[in-house]
Amino acid sequence: MTPPPFRRRNTRPPAEYPGIACTVGFAKHVVVESHPRLVGEKALRLRDVLSGSLEVAMGLETVHPQVLPRLNKKFELAHFSQAAGFLRNHGIAVRAFVLVKPPFLDESEGVEWAVKSSAFAFSCGATVVSLIPTRPGNGAMERLMATGEFSPPRLATLEKTLESALNLRGSGRIFADTWDLEQFSRCPACFEKRRQRIHAMNLSQRIPPAIDCPACG
Q1: What burial letters (b/e) apply to 116-134, b meaning 16+ CB within 10 Å?
Q2: What is the pLDDT of residue 44?
Q3: Looking at the whole model, is its pTM more than 0.70?
């Protein structure tokens, strides 16, 4: 499959790198975000002017063969793999963003494919995977919600995904994004306990006892 035309947007010119490095000179480790198809020699130029180490975070999104093309991210898995390999070969750490329950998947498929996507990221050399519950708010998700092709994941789905992905922890660290978690909760009675449990898994990289909620079962 030939990828669609790709336009470079919102990239910082290398001439600005020394100034950026000066601004973050206090940091021992710097994380920047990049599209997989923008990774190249510029990453090395940024690495070379930083006081600390560099990590590049890339949105892998999902390895689902039908869903990834429909997200219109304009890259293929080979692009991610090649970018990750380039970075690792030059001493730059790799982080991957993985969507939990992107459009076109149900709750159980959301867990399954997020775990598969995490495994793929680790196989490419990523040392960190961030699990991102797919949120509405950009217009496109709302249109898919109207057609029944998308609904935000339940909190239990994110929780289960993190549990399952932690079984891969020998390959690297797994974190769940906890911003505005309440929007994914279906049960006020156990929300805070579940939020704390997810936070604990993020910190410890271990699976604590499950929450037993009489209200939601």
Answers
A1: ebbbbbbebbbebbbbbbb
A2: 97
A3: yes
